Amino acid sequence: MRVPILQWLPKYSSNDFAADLIAGVTIGITVIPQALAYATIGGLPPEYGLYSAYVGCFVYVVLGSTRVVTIGPTALLGLLTHDGALLMGPQAAVLLAFLTGCISLLFGILNFGFLIEFIAAPVIAGFTTAAALTIGTTQVKSLLGLKFEADGFVETWKAVFEHIDETKTWDAVMGFSSVAALLLLRLLDKVKIGIEDDRTTFQRFINGTFWLISVSRNAIVIIIGCTIATALITPGDDDTLFEITGNITSGLPSIQPPSFNIEYGNQTFSFVEICQNLGSALFVTPLIAILESMAIAKSFAKGQRIDASQEMIAIGTSNLLGSFVFSFPVSGSFSRTAVNNASGVRTALGGIYTGILVLLAITILTPYFFFIPKSCLAAVIITAVIFMVEIHLVKLVWNSRKLDLIPLFVTFSFCLFLSLEIGIIIGTAVNLAMLLYATARPRIKILTFQNTSATDAHIHYLHITPDRSVVFTAIDYFMSTVRKASVLYPGVPVVIDLSYVSIADFSTAYGFDNLAEDLHKRGHPLVITKAHPRVLTILEGVRGTKLHVHRDGIELDRLLLGNDS
User: Fold this and answer.
1) Are residues 81 and 43 in contact, defined by beta-carbon separation less than 8 angstroms?
2) Angle, alpha carbons 17-23-25 (nearest 5°)
3) Whole-angstrom Cα distance, residue 109 to residue 111?
4) Which range has the worst mean pLDDT, 385-389, 527-531, 552-556?
5) For a disulfide at 38, which of 73, 127, 411, 526, Cβ 3.0-4.6 Å?
6) In this structure, are 454 and 372 located in the same domain?
7) Is residue 140 part of a domain?
8) Residue 428 above 80 pLDDT?
9) Strand, coil or helix: what is 376?
10) Which band of pLDDT confidence, cut at 50, 70 and 90, is reported for residue 539?
11) Which pLDDT score, from 0 to 100, does residue 565 have?
């Protein structure tokens, strides 16, 4: 395990400090309203979002492999936490963070980073898009001020339409106004004054102000919404104009290990029962946490090598330590990392200032969060997740390889209509099955030749070339194809060209030897040509007397003419 901070900290300068301070404070302003909102996605009290927003900041400074990634609560992990928290209470979310940390950390220490590469881009796109639609759907209730219980994409929309006449006007106005404001403020960053290479100091200041307002849009909308609600709501009035966040526990949480036996409601859950109830979320949550962080790190790497195992260690440690202060599972955040990068962060030390700002919010600002309208928080979530929908990728996949749309739509459908955990498992299984099928069915070119290029000898033979490696999954199919081709040309030598075969295994060697014996009985000499050295070594380990290997054109002629001993 490396400690990356030891590589860059000795070179830290005052210029780095100023840039990191600006970026860190900017991220802090961004993460506080997001943390409150993402906790509600997970079915948790809002303060749990704040508890989840600072430990990762400090950990990533020491263990993170890039300067820009910011660790904290995300919409995806909030959604994966929801079912467990709903059934067994907030402690289940905390324990899930602990287990996510243990699994991620173990995978990182064992250098299992390569396993992430088995999750294909179409599967990730299907998962992310379905998750975004599911998350957005869960917030429609709060956006309209409705009260009902429903699970899943279809059930939630069904309940929305059944209760649509119960919409609270003030909540709907506040919610849709917040959505509009957030989308407009997001565009403010695109407004530029002056010509890029010839701007005055005042123009640069105005552009910088526009950018700061744009990246702080969540905090701005929350503050305005809270101010309006405070002015309009009469204390003690049971029929308030808005559904508000309510009391948020103030102060830092006590440091204690997560509970492995949970009492919630009238039930007590043992550790085994907790694991059973969490189900596939136990494995999918660390997988998604790692995937999110890795995808973000690669997006902003700018040529820098990303150590997948080191990222696993950073994510694992963040979750593991975070669980001791009531954090739910955390990972890298794409939106906050983009802001961090645009803020000009120089090193990972920017996370220190973000973490300090979150701690100040927990200890000082929580009483002021009481009047935050839930419709404002819903607007923050909806405007964040709509940009996770990857519709554009469908066209790219269609233009590139249409077959890859199968795992994309399978993942999307199962995630949306069944569950995220099951969807990504099924999608990955379908994608791997397609990959295995491709290895099991190589394309085989069959030609007939009259002579070789090395001599003028007139030799009639069958030339067979597989277009990829022939391993255990493909050997039976390959042997069957060769046998069928040999039947059409009785007594003709068979030459297998292994130019495109870079990998072989025992099944390959054993199959080729059996094929040589079989063809020999029917009068077909079998010759292997152009084998790579490592493939040749494997074949030599099993090769019998009926399988011939040639190393040049003249030797091939001799073998085909029957002059080879």
Assistant:
1) yes
2) 100
3) 5
4) 552-556
5) 73
6) no
7) no
8) yes
9) helix
10) confident
11) 40
DSSP code at position 363:
I
Question: Rounded to whole angstroms, how far apart are CA atoms 438 and 435?
Answer: 5
Q: 139 lies in a domain?
A: no
Write the single-letter amino acid at 319. N
Element (H, E) at 539: helix 533-540
141 within a domain of the structure (yes/no)? no
Length of the chain: 565
Cα–Cα distance between 547 and 559 in angstroms, integer? 11
Q: Tokens 């992990």 belong to which residue? A: 77
Alpha helices in 89-216 (DSSP H): 90-109, 121-144, 153-162, 169-188, 201-215
Domain boundary among 368, 389, 410: 389
Are 38 and 171 contained in the same domain?
yes
378 plus 490 within the same structural domain? no
Range of the domain at 173: 5-119+158-389
Residue type, 287: L
Give me the amino acid identity at 414. F
Residue 459, pLDDT score: 63
Whole-angstrom Cα distance, residue 155 to residue 176? 23
444 pairs with which residues across the strands? 466
Q: Do 462 and 360 fall within a single domain?
A: no
Rounded average pLDDT over 522-549: 83
Count CB neighbours of 563 within 10 A.
8
Rounded distance between C-alpha atoms, residue 391 and residue 70, angstroms = 26
The CA angle 132-137-141, to the nearest 5 degrees, is: 145
Percentage of residues in the chain with pLDDT exceeding 70? 93
Distance of CA 532 to the CA centre of its chain: 37
pLDDT in tens, 464-508: 999 998 999 999 999 999 999 988 888 888 899 998 999 999 999
More confident of the two residues 463 and 450: 463
- Asked if residue 461 and residue 323 are part of one domain, the reply reads no
Strands 461-466 and 444-449: antiparallel
- Asked, for residue 412, whether it belongs to a domain, the answer is no
- According to DSSP, residue 455 is labeled S
Q: Are residues 490 and 380 in the same domain?
A: no
264 three-class SS: strand
- How many structural domains is the chain composed of? 2
Shared-domain flag, residues 99 and 234 = yes
Largest Cα–Cα distance of the chain, in whole Å?
A: 105
